[in-house]
Design brief:
By secondary structure, this protein is of the alpha/beta class. Helices cover about 50% and strands about 10% of the residues. A four-stranded mixed sheet has the order 3-4-1-5. α15 crosses α16. It is globular and about 75 Å long. This is DUF5937 family protein.
């Protein structure tokens, strides 16, 4: 069984990569202290120690660790450059009927939505799939969907600001690098290649995109392609969100997330090269076989950003590396002269 998103290759080519701070919150909360990524466990532990207990309990009730569905309004479709504050405002302003619909989908005893029940093969099977309503959520729901939306927004904001915000520049830089690499893949090999690189099980069958799921369904409103959302705290198969008329989203884990908690030693340069340009500059030149930002180099290796910036400028003036601006990032890479100096 699978979800099928119908589209042509021309429509798929309209797809965009976007970053979503709210997705990081939801993905972190989903696995809590058992998350396999150390940075996500750290984020959760920070939040648990700093957040108002009630807001954390509400967030955990909305994003269960023992069920695969959480309300989609917690992570609304982002635009390029979306901030957590903008997403929090979106969450708080979720229309009451949308809040009710999302709660109905996953919570036992609420209204059975026929369009959702049919995906599961009938109301009885669907009701077994739904989960009981946690007490803290039942009390909140009794106060109305608008209150649910505002409280959820407060909880998402508190979680982000209390735990993720301190590391967000590094995480955002990693996400931007993943978007750049996959954008280059689109240029080199096409949108289908970029799509199938997001994770196992995701496939293109000529008429659209298929994702394995325990139910059947068709999405026919992806008229502007898809939103590809890299999430450093994502774990498991590509997650799918579709709410008509919004562009469907596919959340996936980007490459290189280990860099958020690990640091590497730069490679040892050739002694002659180190003697010629200096040890640090030789190491930098060696690792610039692909475009990298000052922040990435600082985060990945044992250098401060001012140190990296200083030596990159010297290498740039010498014609050994070139700088290119891509959006908010300035990326550095070996020039042909730099590559020849390294014997490549």
């Amino acid at each position: 069984m699978a979800i099928h998103i119908t589209m042509t290759t021309d429509v798929l080519a309209r797809s965009r990569f976007v970053v979503s701070p709210a997705h990081e919150v939801v993905s972190t909360v989903r696995l809590r202290r058992t998350h396999p990524a150390p940075h996500a466990r750290t984020w959760y532990e920070r939040a648990a120690g700093r957040m108002d207990g009630y807001l954390l309990a509400v967030l955990e009730a909305l994003v269960p660790d023992d069920h695969d569905y959480s309300p989609d309004f917690l992570a609304p479709p982002p635009e390029p450059g979306t901030t957590i504050q903008q997403q929090v405002t979106q969450i708080a302003g979720t229309p009451p009927e949308v809040v009710d619909y999302h709660l109905d989908i996953g919570l036992r005893g609420r209204d059975v939505r026929p369009d959702v029940a049919v995906l599961h093969g009938g109301a009885e099977r669907y009701e077994r799939w739904r989960r009981p309503v946690p007490t803290v959520l039942a009390d909140l729901v009794a106060r109305g969907p608008a209150t649910v939306a505002r409280t959820a927004a407060d909880a998402v904001q508190a979680f982000f600001e209390g735990s993720i915000s301190a590391d967000w520049p590094d995480a955002a830089a990693l996400l931007a690098e993943d978007v750049r690499r996959r954008g280059d893949l689109v240029t080199r090999r096409g949108a289908v290649a970029a799509l199938t690189s997001l994770g196992p099980g995701l496939s293109w069958d000529g008429d659209g995109v298929s994702l394995p799921r325990p139910y059947e369904g068709t999405v026919g409103w992806a008229r502007e392609g898809l939103l590809f959302v890299p999430v450093t705290a994502h774990h498991g198969p590509v997650r799918f969100t579709a709410e008509e008329p919004y562009t469907p989203m596919l959340a996936y884990r980007p490459d290189g997330i280990a860099r958020l908690w690990e640091r590497a030693d730069p490679p040892d340069p050739a002694p002659a090269l180190a003697e010629l340009v200096g040890s640090t500059r030789a190491q930098l030149l060696t690792v610039l076989d692909e475009p990298r930002s000052t922040r990435e180099l600082s985060r990945r290796y044992h250098w401060s950003e001012p140190t990296v910036s200083y030596h990159l400028k010297v290498l740039e003036r010498s014609g050994l590396v070139a700088a290119e601006r891509r959006g908010r990032l300035v990326l550095y890479q070996q020039t042909s002269l730099g590559s020849r100096l390294l014997g490549r």
